[in-house]
Write the structure tokens for this entry.
Amino acid sequence: MRALVTQLTPDGRRQKILVTDWPEPGDAEGKHVKTRTVFSGVTNGTERNNLLRGNYAMPDDALPAGYGYQNVGRVVEVGSDVEHLAVGDVLFMSADHAEFVLVHEDGLLIKLPETIDLQHAALFGVASVAMHDVRRAETKLGDRALVIGAGPIGQFTAQTARAAGANVTVVDLDERRLSVARQCGAHQTIPVGGEATWQGPIREAGPFDIVFEDSGADVLGYVIGTGWGGGLIKHRGKVVMIAGRSQVAYNFNSGQGSEVTILHAGHFDKSDIAQVARLLGDGVIRIQPIIQDVAKPDKAKEIYDTLRDEPNQLFGTVFDWQ
């Protein structure tokens, strides 16, 4: 079957390409269902981390292998013990980019309503990460929220935080991405142009109750401050760390003085996916402006080479397997 697979190149780099002879999963048995993929979505941060041998990448000796968590597929076969799914149902699943997927009916998936655009559903994974993080921070009406990084997860974080009632400021290096954030309802966007931006317009937009760090950049010094204060965050504010990294350093005295809470957020769960589907159906969040490229799987090498080497050239990317 067809699948998008990470492999080593002769010079030791990693690439991700379409292969046509990947082993197809077996028949659906018990409580498992088998699906044929309709769309799948690139998870920019996670898949780039794997291409660059990042802090949570799989080891070289595990390659070649698939890697991804945004798959939209139609059920083609059900096991004898399946209770809630049927042939023809369309699912969003935390699963690889592969033509066929075998999943347990109680796995990390939901049955999609007929009203959902399936192309949009291919980004439900990154949207659900954002949903999980906004809920983890217990974002509420009236909070001032700062979203650092306007990639796909940052975009959905901003939209979900606004849906929870927060006043949202988004900052990024890329004006094009900030334009999308404004289109999707951010109250304020600020282009980052060095330290003067952090000490000027970003500081003036605060102080913030919650800061979502979605960029992976070393910016906690600005957020929490140095010494006994001077950060962007309110007393007893919250910082949610999303983008993957091995270590985080900050000035303890400043964090202690402001009694800052640093929150870790893990992967999304079923309830997060369901809330994304509900808010999309209600028109509260938008996915279409975040989709930049829709491509056939045979364009995978070009797309993943760009993700590895020039990540700012990509945004929301969906593979069409039909």
Notes: The domain at 3-123+287-320 is CATH 3.90.180.10 (Quinone Oxidoreductase; Chain A, domain 1). The first strand starts at residue 3 and ends at 8. The chain has two domains: 3-123+287-320, 130-264.
